[in-house]
Specification:
The structure holds two protein chains of two kinds.
Chain A: E1 2-9, H1 18-28, E2 36-42, E3 51-56, H2 64-75, E4 80-84, E5 87-92, H3 96-106, E6 111-116, E7 119-125, H4 128-134, E8 144-150, E9 165-166, E10 171-179, H5 182-189, H6 201-214, H7 219-229, E11 232-240, E12 243-248, E13 257-260, E14 264-268, E15 284-286, E16 294-297
Antiparallel strand pairs in A: 1-8, 1-14, 2-7, 2-8, 3-5, 3-6, 4-5, 9-10, 10-11, 11-12, 12-16, 13-14, 13-15
Chain B: E1 4-5, E2 9-13, H1 19-28, E3 42-46, E4 63-67, E5 82-86, E6 101-104, E7 120-123, E8 136-142, E9 156-161, E10 177-180, E11 191-194, H2 198-210, E12 221-225
Parallel strand pairs in B: 2-3, 3-4, 4-5, 5-6, 6-7, 7-8, 8-9, 9-10
Antiparallel strand pairs in B: 1-2, 10-12, 11-12
The chains are: A alpha+beta, B mainly beta.
């Protein structure tokens, strides 16, 4: 069992409340996933010369100032840093490949949770309430967000195995369910130079869909290919720079409920997590049908 | 008792009273609260907010009205009681019902009426996948459409579908009978269309009347088991 959470704000003036609206939904899903939690927020976009990287240092205290100085020495340009305990968002105008290679070489203990112009990502093991507090999810602002509470069924409980998973830039995916062909997907993708960070089934789906989009498919087409190639049970919720997308497999064993008002589109595994949203009584409430695409644009 | 009483109704607000206490009250009605609850009274449950297991295991001829959306297994294992959900129901509404009546005024999620042995489940809106899975003698009337695999392995009882049915309707049916007014996307293994008899028309008319629907029974088709799976057939080569 796991919990999925999504929120897309329709009225720009409510974007400052994204975190405040999302946290109660996430906490409502805590019983479905007490192992780990994660949240991706899509913020105002950086211009196309900039990229930001969500960095996670694990349980250790980390010398972010040391990293900032070393970065400046190496590249002769200072990165912008937003530091929050064992987590930081680093922004820079340098090419992503150069930044990632440098981080990997000099700070192999750091995990790059996400890369892009709009995505910030946080994930950690522990009770969802503790994770939400640690990174002050309530204060997050943005147009849309994707979150997850995990109850592990098929791979280890570590921060790297927590959701959301990312691949490429400004793309993330959360999953409730289990895939039966993640290894086949891996064998299909690895020869294309796609590298995996974990043995988790969700990562295989995430990298498959991102690979399709990199090959030229739009999100909708890649999801259609996903219906053909991904075998198993799933409710997937995905975020891109300007979209939120939701799909369920043909058997629809894994739940999802959508509540839509003039102000927002809210998604959770169960209605009770949405019951306290403002104006929920006026919301259009429905369960997504199996093998149909639900895509909302900011 | 924390509920607010009046001559004809008694109401609990789930934002004030814990669900366990409300369910305990409903279970104790016949023995403890016989003086305070009369059979004509409706016990109202307000602000269900999608909680699981609301009004499960009732065993008395109570009238219960849940005003809002319910979570998993609402009115499960119902016996004798009449439970109305003024909203949508989560997975497994009225699962394993023995008798009585459960009505969902909105839509019902997956596995509505699963394994129900008796009673009547009425869903005014659509029902999701696996409606009436393993039905064992209960009756279900769905005002809208049903999802795929409805009445899967249903053993006894009747499923009336006023709208359309999804894929694999009645897969591996035993002796339950399905009546469909709309389109059937596909029939499951061993399910077949059969001619309607006078008995079938009467059964549909009776169930529609009980659920407050006004369709013409003549518009319904009958789906039942071809009974080809009852005995293993070595020559079938696993093709059914």
């Amino acid at each position: 069992m796991c919990g999925i959470v999504g929120l897309l704000i329709k009225k720009p003036e409510l974007r400052d409340c994204l975190g405040e609206l999302m946290v109660p939904i996430l906490l409502g899903m805590a019983q479905r996933g007490p192992d780990s939690a994660g949240l991706a927020v899509f913020t105002d976009s950086l211009d196309d010369t900039h990229r930001k990287y969500s960095l996670y240092a694990g349980g250790q205290t980390f010398n972010w100032n040391g990293l900032t100085h070393a970065f400046q020495t190496a590249f002769d340009i200072a990165p912008a840093m937003q530091i929050n305990g064992n987590h930081a968002v680093l922004s820079s105008t340098l090419a992503p490949d150069a930044v990632k290679a440098w981080l990997k070489q000099h700070y192999p203990q750091l995990h790059i949770l996400s890369t892009g112009r709009t995505i910030d990502l946080y994930k950690e093991i522990g009770q969802p309430a503790a994770v939400a507090d640690r990174y002050n999810f309530k204060s997050l602002k943005g147009s849309h967000g994707v979150a997850h509470t995990r109850m592990a069924t098929e791979s280890a409980v570590t921060p790297a195995h927590a959701h959301p998973f990312t691949a490429g830039e400004d793309f993330c995916l959360v999953h409730n369910g289990s895939l039966s062909n993640p290894n086949a997907l891996r064998r299909q993708l690895e020869p294309q130079g796609i590298r995996f960070e974990t043995d988790n089934d969700t990562e295989a789906a995430c990298r498959f869909l991102e690979w399709r989009m990199r090959e030229g498919d739009d999100l909708e087409t890649s999801l259609q290919k996903g219906f053909e190639e991904l075998d198993g049970f799933y409710t997937f919720l995905m975020g891109t720079a300007d979209k939120l997308a939701l799909v369920r497999d043909a058997f629809a064993c894994k739940p999802a409920v959508v509540a839509e008002t003039d102000d927002y589109v809210a998604i959770a595994s169960e209605f009770h997590a949405l019951a306290h949203l403002p104006h929920i009584n006026q919301a259009q409430i429905y369960e997504p049908a199996p093998e149909e695409l639900y895509v909302w644009t900011v | 008792m924390d509920g607010v009483t009046s001559a004809t109704s008694l109401s609990f607000d789930l934002r004030q009273t814990p669900l366990r206490q409300v369910n305990q009250f409903l279970h104790d009605v016949q023995t403890v609260h016989i003086q305070t609850v009369h059979s004509t009274q409706t016990v109202q449950i307000l602000n269900p907010d999608g909680a699981h297991n609301i009004a499960v295991g009732l065993d008395a001829p109570l009238q219960v009205e849940i005003v809002g959306h319910t979570g998993y297994y609402a009115a499960g294992m119902n016996q004798l009681a009449t439970v109305t959900i003024v909203g949508n129901a989560g997975p497994g509404v009225a699962e394993n019902m023995m008798s009585g009546r459960v009505q969902v005024q909105g839509f019902a999620s997956v596995s509505a009426g699963a394994s129900a042995q008796g009673g009547l489940l009425v869903i005014d809106g659509d029902a999701s996948l696996r409606c009436g899975i393993s039905l064992k003698g209960g009756d279900i009337v769905v005002g809208g459409n049903v999802g795929s695999f409805s009445a899967f392995m249903a053993q006894a009882g009747r499923l009336v579908i006023c709208g359309d049915a999804g894929d694999a309707l009645g897969d591996s049916l035993y002796e339950a009978v399905i009546y469909v007014r709309g389109q059937i996307k596909s029939l499951g293994a061993d399910a077949q269309l059969e001619p309607m008899t006078d008995q079938d028309y009467a059964a549909v008319a009776d169930l529609l009347a009980q659920s407050g629907r006004f369709h013409d029974p003549q518009e319904f088709k009958r789906v039942a088991s071809a009974r080809q799976l009852y005995h293993w057939n070595a020559d079938a080569n696993q093709e059914y």
